[in-house]
């Protein structure tokens, strides 16, 4: 059982004016898998290190199961951590790396042995127990780092970009293993990454951070379908969402760069407070832009003529880059032939799945609740 | 053509090596000469007659065993003490957070600029008040607070990734455990350097033992070797036999420390 509560947590380093983390509020349920995600320097690692006790907390309260932990030493927090560079003890064998923490905590010798062996078998490290870290591959080192955390049965697992030093293929398989491991151990986990795929696939809830502040907290599906603001919409999703600065004119979304789309009734109904000629940022995901030949009789005004600039064939998908006026479009399509660079095509926009952001506040104009009601 | 450069290089290096090694050869050669053969001209490199009695005589005529014992005790404890103090202070200056840490470190470093001769008399008076004159403490303790050692170890600690300590803290370690069981095993090259330097310095130290020890009972080898030289005439063969005896322990320490030096160089388990 470990519920974590972060209340108005803030961090400011000495001699720095700006807060690295500010006004951080998060309740983490027992057994929940939370992923902190954001660009580098957004404060996600600092937050994790405050939970670990490796950084002091400037302001706010950090509680585990209702107990204030702000000033408790790392070793007394019942927390285990996996570091980005693994931080294995180079002079110790895998066995000693795994048992070091247990020894320091004065576990009985038999107990240590059985825990180490069990962790090693879960992680497939049994045959490497006598090896030194330097002789292991990246993936194996990563497993040892995980093993060091799981032998202790810690209530909370912290992982600081644990996969970022692995190659793409290994990263994918380790990602699946981490998910399996969590299902098996059910420890409350806080995981930091800048990789949105890791965030989307592993998390029960994602916390998206930027410049020290939480931008949105929600399930992977929520943050994808209902981004709270321009930053979240742009950060989550690959290829990235299309943004257009537009204004509303006579039921159309237009801009001076040649953009003109008719607002459907349904889309309009989501925006009850729309002012005439209000400036908006329109966000529309690549999969919600189609080549119009492939859609049946598009509604008038819901298409734009463009010229293809780049075609990326990915096997199952085709990513089409196109230009219409001064606007650039990225569309994700099912595999097929759509033309070559220089060809003209008509793009159809599924505005019902588009996102509308206030141009100045950058906030989503449609509340998550309202859009939930639609789907 | 291309061999000429290499040949010249090797000739120069060989010349340097011969210049370096000649005094040692001369020392060993002289230690096996008879009293009359030490000063003959042209000099003999191969002793004729070959006399090995010098090594026995030097032990018979002088308390070499006492000197040797004193030197070994002083050098070993000075080295151990220096390693302990330098490791602890180096770790503290590198890794612990306290007020004015860097200023204190700089002030400590600055004491290197004070010549030893300046503090010799005050140090002597201090030890006299402690009642440490002509004791092992008097010979050892002033030598173990080595600024250079602290500096060396601090730099070595700074070179170890912080995550390693943090991982150990998460594992339940305290500062001492981190310092001695997690990081120090990784600093064997620095420890080897510090060991060689300190041991040699202590072993060869002449002035401080001369000041602080007054009896033959507490004399170290360098003092003893000085006693081998008479005022009017000196048995150089005996002196050289004594010198050979005094060089052997240093060679042993050097060879021993060199091994861990190489071992330390080849160890690395961190992902860069």
Name a few traits of the molecule.
heterodimer; A: 375 residues; alpha+beta; Rossmann fold; OB fold (Dihydrolipoamide Acetyltransferase, E2P); 2 domains; 31% strand; elongated; disordered C terminus; B: 272 residues; mainly alpha; MetI-like fold; globular
Report what the structure shows:
The complex is a heterodimer of chains A (375) and B (272). Chain A is α+β, with helices and mostly antiparallel strands. Chain A has 10 helices and 20 strands. Chain A has 2 domains: 4-231, 3-Layer(aba) Sandwich (Rossmann fold); 239-374, Nucleic acid-binding proteins (OB fold (Dihydrolipoamide Acetyltransferase, E2P)), CATH 2.40.50.140. Chain A has helices at residues 44-52, 94-104, 109-123, 138-150, 168-185, 196-202, 220-225, 230-235, 265-269, 368-374, and strands at 4-11, 21-28, 33-37, 59-64, 67-68, 79-82, 156-160, 188-193, 205-210, 213-218, 242-249, 252-255, 259-262, 279-284, 289-291, 303-313, 317-324, 327-334, 344-349, 355-358. With 272 residues, chain B is an all-alpha fold. Chain B has a single domain (69-265), classed as MetI-like (MetI-like fold). Chain B is 71% helix and 0% strand. Chain B contains 13 helices and no strands. Chain B starts with a helix and ends in a 7-residue tail after the last helix. The interface between A and B is medium-sized, with 30 and 22 residues.
């Amino acid at each position: 059982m470990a519920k974590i509560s972060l209340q108005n947590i803030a961090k400011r380093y000495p001699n720095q004016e700006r807060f690295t983390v500010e006004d951080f509020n998060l309740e983490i349920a027992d057994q929940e898998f939370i992923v902190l995600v954001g660009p580098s320097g957004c404060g996600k690692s600092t937050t994790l290190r405050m939970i670990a006790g490796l950084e002091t907390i400037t302001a706010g309260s950090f509680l585990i199961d209702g107990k204030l932990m702000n000033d408790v030493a790392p070793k007394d927090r019942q927390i285990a951590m996996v570091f980005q560079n693994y931080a294995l003890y180079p002079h110790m064998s895998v066995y000693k790396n795994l048992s070091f923490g247990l020894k320091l905590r004065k576990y009985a010798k038999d107990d240590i042995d059985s825990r180490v062996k069990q962790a090693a078998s879960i992680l497939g490290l049994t045959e490497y127990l006598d090896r030194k870290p330097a002789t292991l591959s990246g993936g194996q080192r990563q497993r040892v780092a995980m093993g060091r955390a799981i032998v202790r049965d810690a209530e909370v697992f912290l992982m600081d970009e644990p996969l970022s030093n692995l190659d793409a293929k290994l990263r994918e398989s380790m990602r699946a293993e981490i998910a399996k491991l969590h299902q098996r151990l059910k420890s409350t986990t806080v995981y930091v990454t800048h990789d949105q795929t890791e965030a989307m696939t592993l998390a029960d809830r994602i916390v998206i951070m930027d410049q020290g502040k939480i931008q949105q907290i929600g399930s992977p599906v929520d943050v994808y379908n209902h981004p709270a603001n321009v930053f979240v919409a742009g950060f989550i999703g690959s290829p990235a969402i299309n943004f257009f600065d537009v204004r509303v004119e006579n039921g159309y979304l237009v801009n001076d760069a040649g953009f003109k789309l008719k607002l459907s009734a349904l889309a309009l109904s989501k925006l009850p407070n729309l002012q005439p000629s209000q400036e908006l940022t329109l966000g529309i995901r690549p999969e919600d832009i189609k080549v119009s030949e492939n859609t049946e009789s598009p509604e008038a005004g819901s298409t734009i003529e463009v010229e293809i600039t780049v075609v990326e064939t990915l096997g199952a998908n085709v990513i089409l880059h196109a230009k219409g006026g001064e606007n650039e479009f990225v569309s994700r399509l099912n595999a097929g032939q759509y033309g070559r660079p220089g060809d003209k095509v008509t793009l159809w926009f599924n505005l019902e799945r588009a996102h509308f952001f206030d141009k100045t506040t950058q906030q989503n104009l449609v509340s998550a609740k309202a859009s939930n009601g639609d789907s | 053509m291309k061999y000429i450069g290499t040949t010249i290089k090797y000739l120069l290096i060989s010349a340097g090596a011969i210049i370096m090694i000649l005094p040692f050869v001369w020392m060993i050669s002289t230690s096996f000469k008879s009293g009359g053969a030490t000063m003959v001209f042209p000099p003999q490199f191969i002793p004729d007659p070959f006399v090995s009695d010098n090594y026995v005589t030097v032990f018979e005529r002088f308390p070499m065993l006492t000197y040797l014992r004193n030197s070994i005790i002083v050098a070993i404890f000075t080295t151990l003490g220096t390693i302990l103090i330098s490791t602890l202070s180096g770790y503290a200056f590198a890794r612990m957070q306290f007020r004015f840490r860097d200023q204190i470190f700089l002030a400590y470093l600055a004491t290197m600029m004070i010549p030893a001769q300046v503090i010799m008399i005050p140090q002597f008076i201090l030890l006299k008040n402690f009642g440490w004159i002509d004791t092992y403490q008097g010979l050892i303790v002033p030598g173990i607070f080595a600024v250079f050692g602290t500096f060396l170890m601090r730099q070595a600690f700074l070179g170890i990734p912080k995550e390693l300590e943090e991982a150990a803290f998460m594992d339940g370690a305290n500062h001492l455990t981190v310092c001695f069981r997690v990081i120090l095993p990784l600093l064997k090259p620095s420890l080897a350097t510090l060991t060689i330097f300190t041991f040699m310095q202590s072993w060869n130290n002449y002035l401080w033992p001369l000041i602080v020890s007054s009896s033959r009972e507490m004399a170290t080898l360098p003092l003893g070797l000085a006693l081998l030289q008479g005022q009017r005439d000196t048995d150089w063969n005996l002196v050289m036999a004594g010198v050979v005896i005094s060089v052997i322990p240093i060679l042993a320490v050097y060879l021993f420390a060199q091994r861990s030096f190489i071992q330390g160089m080849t160890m690395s388990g961190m992902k860069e």
